[in-house]
Amino acid sequence: MHREEITNLTAGPSTLPLAVLEQAAKGLLNYENTGMGITELSHRSAEFVKLDNDLQEILGRHLHIPDTHSILFVQGGGSLQFSAVVLNLLARHRRFFPNLSEEERVMDYVVTGSWSAKGAEEAERLGGGAPVNIVQNGRTLSRDGKSFEQIADPKEWKFSPNPAFVYYCENETVDGIQFDGVVSSSVSGAAPLSFPFDLLPRDPADPTRSVPLDHALIFAGAQKNIGPAGLTILIVRHDLLHPLPPKTPSNIPISMDYGVVAKANSLYNTPPTFAMYVALLVLRHFEGQGGIQVLATVNGRKAHKVYAVLEYGEQRGVVRMRVKDGHRSHMNITFEVLGEGEEARFISEGTAKGFRGIKGHRSVGGVRLSLYNAVTEDQVDGLVAFILEFIDSSPSARKT
Ligand SMILES: Cc1ncc(COP(=O)(O)O)c(C=O)c1O
């Protein structure tokens, strides 16, 4: 198979722009004329320290990250952050409110999909005496009581009065659920559901600020959209960055302590050097194509085209969308193909036509199409043509 014959719709690790991979291949052999490949350079070398700073600069500029926050690069993936979040945010809460009991350090989790559910489980495990409050549990609204198909109306959410922190996942990649506030991918015009920041309780440490209107922490695994696996990007507000004095007892493993990592400019221990290099190349590549605004516009169009053909398939009784309109992810589109053996046929015919990674996550089944940045609009047009042909030739299709 040649690369050009494949449309890689995998949910992560995911496709990267060819031009970036070609450049990265050169950097693997000889990075910036050092005579050494990027993976052979010390993370303490001047060249790598510059790369670390350049990556922070480009992320800061494109995401408009204010100087109240630091950008950190760590290993361990989203899953390690499920643990690190609990330990670091509870440590912050103990620092600001030393006289509260552990039972009063309530952690509010908004469970909209498989990942926020996992985050909440980890908080239960690591919270010590601090309890977890599930603000809303999307599972209870699904047909089988186990899946995630929609987010409850925010009027029904139950925040605790004084949470230590509020946790939510903006885009649930397994289930295909997103707080759809930025670009609506809705075909029918359903109202998009944004995260209801206005309902958040006030932070007693700073009553002018709701928790966490300017987020205390954002984390993202690079393997979706930004680069190879191995790199996790953290955007951390400065009131979380207080390393304890040496020898003070702490339950935070030292390389997971945001204060320690920040003090060392992400070089407390060896960061994922190659993944950071490729991330920088990816960001420069998309900057050259117009930056985030252009990406958002193109991605909105891509999602809209795929949802439109799937809604047509739904009207003809060939597919069933998994997620309620207005709550659907722009990046990870999930659905089922109806009829005995039809889903397997969709996947095998799609695979034969070069579409890869289209099977749903092993925990939920179905079909999942991930339209990350490096999936081009031309590839999406090819995908839409395939889906349309499948629908129109399906034995289970109703006449329109
Ligand atoms: C939203 C979200 N959270 C967490 C994770 C877990 O990330 P990792 O596999 O890097 O631990 C993923 C990965 O698929 C994800 O998409």
UniProtKB/TrEMBL annotation:
- What EC number(s) is this enzyme filed under? 2.6.1.52
| Recorded metabolic or biological pathway in which this protein acts | Amino-acid biosynthesis; L-serine biosynthesis; L-serine from 3-phospho-D-glycerate: step 2/3
Q: Which SUPFAM superfamilies match?
A: PLP-dependent transferases
Catalytic activity of the protein: O-phospho-L-serine + 2-oxoglutarate = 3-phosphooxypyruvate + L-glutamate
Q: Which PANTHER family match?
A: PHOSPHOSERINE AMINOTRANSFERASE
- NCBIfam families per record: PRK05355.1
This chain belongs to the protein called phosphoserine transaminase
Q: What is the species of this protein?
A: Hydnum rufescens UP504
